[in-house]
Amino acid sequence: MIHLLRLQNFKCFEDLSLEFRPLTLFSGLNSTGKSSVLQSLLLLRQSYQQDLLPETGLALNGDLVCLGTAQDTLFEGAKEDEISFDLILADGREGIWRFNYNREADVLALAYDVISADIYESSLFNDNFHYLQAERIGPRTSFEISDFQVRQHRQLGAKGEYTAYFLSIFGNKDITKKALSHPQAMSLSLKNQVEAWMGEVSPGTRIEIASNSGMDLVSLRYSFGISNDYRATNVGFGITYTLPILVAALSSSAGTLILIENPEAHLHPKGQSKMGELLALAASCGVQVVIETHSDHVLNGIRLAVHDGKLNPEDVQLHYFQRQEKEGQAFTEVVSPHIDRNGRIDKWPDGFFDEWDKSLEALLEPAGE
After folding, report:
1. Residue limits of the ATPase AAA-type core domain (predicted)?
2. Do residues 201 and 240 make contact, with C-beta atoms less than 8 angstroms apart?
3. In which domain, by residue range, is 202 found?
4. Is 190 helix (H, G, I), strand (E, B) or coil?
5. Which residue, 251, 282, 309, sits at the end of a domain?
6. pTM over 0.85
7. What sign does the dihedral 302-303-307-311 (CA atoms) show?
8. Structural domain count, the chain
9. Are residues 141 and 42 in the same domain?
């Protein structure tokens, strides 16, 4: 489990240190660096998967992240042509990677590293990992099959493209974390649990999956109660968009790292709140969940989970990214509010999920003639 991440001269950050806990939430205005933090972790994983770490350099472009050129990753005001990543895990293992930037060749080469012997056995680098990007796979008439990704590595794909196939293979297996069990589920099987939690988004949803191994495709259809089943393309967009998150949270074992961008996408307010609750429950079961979100409903779902005693407040870390200016130079400042046992937050910096209050105050003012 990640405890601390420090970035130096990476993208918009000259020097940033962030603490992580079992559930870590990033929020803030657009283009303030939230995604860059996630990209730093993905960059390390991607570079390891492409066999550039621990010996060579960084894989800037791949299946997990595409950052362009080396110059694109170097902090604009860097005083030295060097990018560094420091990663400290909760068990004390540490990795420090330094990369020199060659301006003539526009490449980043590993200058040196100081790492614990088994750092590459942690969840950031092994199969106990899921990353679901903001642009996930929406409704399709068919989805990909990959035995390599699903059967061998139990991956859903960064866009959730293998979720339907994952359910077809593992849907009948029971989830291992009973704290995640939905009270309305027919059994502990992954498929039944996914359907029950999906019911918070769209009541009565049932999932039907059919594989066509000859074409390496799998179809996904939905039914509601006693209705006929429907193609995914004829059902609300949010159901298919949410499916990978539910599967990742419910199927992951303790020690898994899950990175999720915009879990609220295409969900109504109640669904967003229930998504926050589910991810909080996953964090309470030993899964480390890192969320980037713009949704106050997701945050409130987490707060309610803390209030109801389902998640320890010490297991939640909030980071709010805001843009500041000093001597004509814009920079990102991170404010980290805390949640108490009652689910209350100790400070609300300007812009931190306060738009509803601002709009309400404006509406309470008499309208001008």
Report:
1. 26-300
2. no
3. 135-251
4. helix
5. 251
6. yes
7. positive
8. 2
9. no
